[in-house]
Amino acid sequence: MVVETVVVAIWVMLPAYIPNNVAVLAGGGRPIDNGMTLGDGKRFLGDGKTWRGTAFGTVAGVAVALALNQIHPFVSGVVAADPFPIAAAVSLAFGAMLGDILASFLKRRTGRERGAAFPGIDQLDFVVVSLALTAIVATGWFFETFTLFVLVAVFVLTPVLHVSTNAIAYALGLKDEPW
Ligand code: CTP
Ligand code: MG
Question: What is the pTM of this model?
Answer without folding.
Answer: 0.95
